[in-house]
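As the next step, I needed to go through one protein, both as residues and as discrete backbone shape codes, included below for the reader:
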Amino acid sequence: MCFLTVYCIKLISKTEYSNIGSAQIKSYPAFKYALVFLMRVLIGRMMSVSAHNMPFPWRSNMAAHGKQDADLSSTPLQILFHLNGWYFAAFFIAEILMFIYKGVILPYPQSNLILDVVLLLLFLGLETLRLFYGWKGNLCQRSLALCVSVGVLVPCAVLSVYFLLLQTFVLRLEFVLNAVLLCFYSFELVLGMMTISIFSRANIY
């Protein structure tokens, strides 16, 4: 439109006289600018009509993409995963120190001590896997990853109960630490199931 308007201005500016009927009259600047304005309005109208009638296939795709990218992640669940990660790091270090204490001070059978240490290392691996899939599933809105996290939560809870009640020697500090860890698991299980339900209703896998 701009190039066509400039071309019309140059064409009109070169014309010193215009024919109206049989008379020769001089073209005034007001007439020239009025004609340019009229042509600009007509060209703009034509372009707007053609743009309005032109199909935009990406509009529906953008709408669908925006609907799919709606934020369905659970903020409380993500906060729990973050706190649980730091808490379990402190829990693991405390358990290692308490095993050293029990191995030195208490008459801890060597076979039982080795078994408990192996179970603690297994606990570390499962908890890391659970937090990774839970973190990823919640942030990326993937119900399958969250299902894996909830599934791994079961053996983690069993190991926590073992260190709470069933190991050879249970210190009072261990009882408190495992009880708090089980509280984390309870809240994460409830919020995880709720988030999986929200993702499933939104058809997000």
Q: What stands out?
A: The first strand starts at residue 17 and ends at 20.
